[in-house]
């Protein structure tokens, strides 16, 4: 599904209104000074309580809000419940999930892009970027919406691969206790919470299994990272 830039309307702040801090906190990491170091900060997206996040000020473009980090041999368990995924878990200084609800609130306040980063066994990083990224509401199942792809390798999130797991774009989020995938079983019970079809081309939320075809075909990526920031295409 190719998304277009959202136009401002009722409940959709403009870029200028989004830059106004709420209660002294920025709406996301893009509002930090470019000279700010990477580290722990407090943000407050529209309609959200303040959230502690890791702001990445080193990756190209600076000002990225980290919403997921995982390492192959992580100590955290990714087979969490719907509610745990909703509100987030882990440590923002290490492996963590920001929270599906906060992903929704963050990406509803404007038009965002996303960069998925994985590191392979040879310690080489690879990325896939989508110029539009949005997570819809809980009432609709937190479905994933992605725009145009750029990056290395093939597009395994919006492309359809029937011999692998189908597609991820437009899929609802599934957890061990809330199965919303298109498979006869429950994909999340084998891996962790994710936007599954039948079951996956890509999985980043799993313990000892980080999969990105072409880079880590056996699920042996050493780490993953998901970064978001306001898009620059609108």
UniProtKB/TrEMBL annotation:
Primary location group: secreted
A biological-process GO annotation: blood coagulation
CDD domains: FReD (cd00087)
Matching SMART domains: FBG
Localization: Secreted
Cellular component, GO annotation: extracellular region
Keyword annotations of the record: Coiled coil, Disulfide bond, Glycoprotein, Secreted, Signal
Superkingdom, natural source: Eukaryota
Record domain Fibrinogen C-terminal: where: 20-232
Name of the protein in its database record: Fibrinogen C-terminal domain-containing protein
Organism (species): Gallus gallus
Gene transcribed to yield this protein: LOC430700
């Amino acid at each position: 599904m190719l998304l277009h830039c959202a136009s401002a309307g009722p409940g959709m702040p403009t870029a200028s209104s989004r830059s106004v801090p709420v209660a002294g906190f920025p709406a996301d990491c893009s509002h930090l000074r470019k000279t700010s170091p990477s580290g722990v900060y407090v943000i407050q997206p529209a309609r959200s309580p303040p959230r502690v996040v890791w702001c990445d000020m080193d990756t190209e473009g600076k000002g990225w809000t980290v919403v997921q980090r995982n390492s192959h041999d992580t100590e955290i368990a990714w087979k969490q419940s719907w509610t745990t995924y909703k509100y987030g878990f882990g440590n923002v200084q290490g492996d963590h999930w920001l929270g599906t609800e906060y992903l929704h609130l963050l990406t509803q306040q404007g038009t965002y892009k996303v960069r998925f980063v994985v590191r392979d066994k040879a310690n080489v990083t690879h990325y896939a970027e989508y110029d539009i990224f949005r997570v819809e509401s809980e009432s609709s199942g937190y479905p994933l919406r992605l725009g145009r792809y750029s990056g290395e390798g093939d597009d395994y999130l919006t492309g359809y691969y029937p011999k692998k797991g189908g597609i991820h774009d437009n899929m609802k989020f599934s957890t061990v206790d809330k199965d919303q995938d298109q498979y006869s079983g429950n994909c999340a019970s084998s891996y962790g919470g994710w936007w599954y079809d039948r079951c996956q081309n890509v999985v980043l939320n799993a313990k000892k299994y980080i999969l990105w075809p072409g880079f880590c075909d056996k699920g042996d990526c050493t780490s993953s990272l998901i970064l978001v920031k306001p898009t620059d295409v609108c």
